[in-house]
Amino acid sequence: MEDGYNEARALRITEIMTDFQALQRRIAEYAPDPSPEEYFEEGYEVLRQCRAEAQAVLIVPYPMEPSKSQSASGDSETRQLQRIILDASARRFQSKKIYLRAVAAVRWSNTRTTILQSGEPLQQQAVLLQQANTNLHAVCTGFTLSCGRSVTDAVSLSSKELAAITDTGIYYDFRQADAQAGYWLHDDPPLASILNWIRSQAA
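Request: output the structure for the sequence above.
Response:
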């Protein structure tokens, strides 16, 4: 039997998908345009990979629930809406992770330009460029890099930002923002369900 909350569930889907679409647009805006000599530098490869991954998340089809389950009881619409909330939450979560990596790669590009134009001795530039590469590599394994004002600060890592790009950090950032916005979160899936859904779709 329908519990009276399906309109709230449908609205929640719209809210999550609005976030998802905004993240997709931001990722699409990061179009790398390196010189031929820099084309295979790690940061530009990361940007190209992020755009490809975002596109893959966008086009993956929604896995419909088997018809025999849908007809098992009168609350099939509720279950279907709950599944869509889970799927939308997973897409939003994946897109945020991709977006954070893309931001890190853009910062890497800006840092690289700053270093090369800084007038520092070549040996010092080499050290700073290596640090920027190390920080970018870190973001691909679960971290992010900070954006300071000086050349040295621009390649330093922030512990607060490092925590923000973990699965738990991303999940609770969304949770906090959604709660502050006053959204109905009763059927929002826990992190474990989101990760299991993503794994099941990749299998």
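The chain has eight helices and no strands.
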